[in-house]
Amino acid sequence: MDPWGQIARSSREDIRALQNKKLARFIKTYVYPFSPRYRRTFDENGIKPGSIRTVEDLQAIPFTSKLDLIATDGRTEKFKEYILQPDKETIRKFWPATRLIRLALSSALRGQEYVEDQMAREFRPAFMTFTTGTTNLPTAFLYSNHDVDNLHIYGARMLKLFDIAGSDRIVNMFPYAPHLAFWQVVFGGLASSVLIMSTGGGKVMGTDGNISALMKMKPAVLLGVPSYVYHVLRTARDQGRDLSFLKKIVLGAARLGEGFKEKITELLMQMGSGDVSVFGTYGFTEARCAWAECPTSISVSSGYHLYPDKEIFEVIDPKTGVVRGEGEDGELVYTALDARGSVVLRYRTGDFVRGGITYAPCPHCRRTVPRVSSDITRLSDVKDMRLSKIKGALVDLNNFSSVLSDIKMIDEWQIELRKHNNDPFDVDEVVVYVSPKSGCDRARLEEEVKKKILLSTEVTPNRVDFLELPELVRRLELETASKEKRIIDNRPKG
Ligand SMILES: [Zn+2]
């Protein structure tokens, strides 16, 4: 039985005490004994596993970064060192006597095979998902059955946070792939005994297939990637469909602008659905977990409700690494508390959160778990390394996305980076392709696009080109690729 109901009503002090207890036990009986990587880290830095007793003690442990995980020494891939690897010797050496006696008793009463099965269920990797970096090689994160059980728990907690009833039906449009989002939804539905149809997204069933799935299932809840969900809803609207059954849209994106949420609700209103909630979610492969907002009005975000019995989040100054206080901006750092398989401690997510973490009870659902502000942007140089030199200025390409998706008169957009005259020695150019909504004042929109991009990236686009929607959808490969081509870099490499 998942103790979520009780944890979500516990006091701040009780939650912290639980975290301290779980952290000390996790480090002493799982991480130090069985993680080749962290045992070395502890030994090299003179950290005694027994000295990590509280959340504050974590600060003695060095950070783990994305680069640590993708590194190789030519022969071994580093991510393997993060997988817990127990054997008879380390178990005997590190586990407390009471636990060893329990093991011996189980073996005597139910046989050696039973004990081996139990150990395999807890530790042996049986499932995996990959990171989806655009420039990095994908890194595998492994799950034992213990972690898959947790993935069920996280999914069920999310459905509770969204206030989804057992009688509601769900359509899952996340792309079918070894990625966290798709499986988080599948397992969440199974754990909550809610009927889900997973279409696999546009690449698997096509947009017409996805719309047919909606018409057949008449779900109250639709989940997916923001751009694809938007595309499906717009296409359904153009076909004159009645989607009045849809009440909740859950999107796999940490940061949803108010403008984008409004665009989604406007489309749904045109198809007969009033009073719709749009939720953002936050998750990443390294945590093998996702977190959710609770229901609010469209202009407000509750923030992401954390699972304090399963992880610890810190917010740090990305430059100095110093831990920040409650509600302060900084980079999110993740530590697992109940993981097997691939385990990371003090993992730098590369995600920058404005408003940090709050420990006050949620004003919307009254749950007392800590919440991360949903104003999350990627520190691109750390995470996706899409920091790109355009016109001699260092530009965070992710900023284009938040700006353009939020402009209400824009239906779809794409950015092309290229060289003037296609000459590799000439200056860089930024071209914005826009498909506007009907009846829009193009000159005014062009003005707005240029102004907003300049404000957030310090680069003025050279041109804003208007394209017909079908042409732009084709260019974006919205219906054919598992990830849309939002920003294309056509500058010669090198
Ligand atoms: Zn809440």
Description:
- Helix 2 packs across helix 3, helix 8 packs across helix 9 and helix 13 (about 400-405) packs antiparallel against helix 14 (about 440-455).
- This protein has helices at about 5, 10-35, 35-45, 65-70, 90-95, 95-110, 110-125, 145-160, 180-190, 200-215, 225-240, 260-270, 400-405, 440-455, 470-475, and strands at about 125-130, 140-145, 170, 195-200, 220-225, 250, 275-285, 290, 305, 310-315, 330-335, 345-355, 355-360, 370, 375-380, 390, 395, 410-420, 430-435, 465, 485-490.
- Residues about 380-385 have low confidence and may be disordered.
- Strand 19, helix 14 (about 440-455) and strand 20 form a beta-alpha-beta unit.
- The longest helix has 23 residues, at about 10-35.
- It folds into three domains: about 1-85 and about 305-380, 3-Layer(aba) Sandwich (Rossmann fold), CATH 3.40.50.12780; about 145-300, Rossmann fold, CATH 3.40.50; about 390-490, ANL, C-terminal domain (GMP Synthetase, Chain A, domain 3, 2-Layer Sandwich), CATH 3.30.300.30.
- The chain has about 500 residues and is of the alpha/beta class.
- It has 15 helices and 21 strands.
- A six-stranded mixed β-sheet has the order 4-3-5-6-7-8, sandwiched between helices. It has a four-stranded antiparallel β-sheet with strand order 10-11-12-15, with no helix packed on it. A four-stranded mixed β-sheet has the order 20-19-18-21, sandwiched between helices.
